[in-house]
Amino acid sequence: MKARAQALLWLAQRVSAAVLALCVVVHLATMIYAVRGGLSAAEILGRTHGNYGWFAFYTLFVFAVAVHAPIGLRTVVAETFGWRGSALDALTLLVGIALALAGMRAVLGVFS
Q: pTM score, two decimals?
């Protein structure tokens, strides 16, 4: 892979990691606050229903995962098995799409 493409993947991995770190902290803090406040899972879901702010937050979370995980998987597969080239790129693209679709299905389930 060309150096420019490698650099872009490196940057995407780091940016998505920063977004994920923030999202994880917000998610965990919110869950701890809600549970300590005595809210049940059903009450928490009731509060997220139709809430565009949480929809946007969890959509960002999903897309950060869909970028971050496949890039890491690509690196692990390449280093472990020596697999390189367009087939590996296609596989990791499919993994990213699958993660985005599954994650957005969950987000839409909580939102609607």
A: 0.89
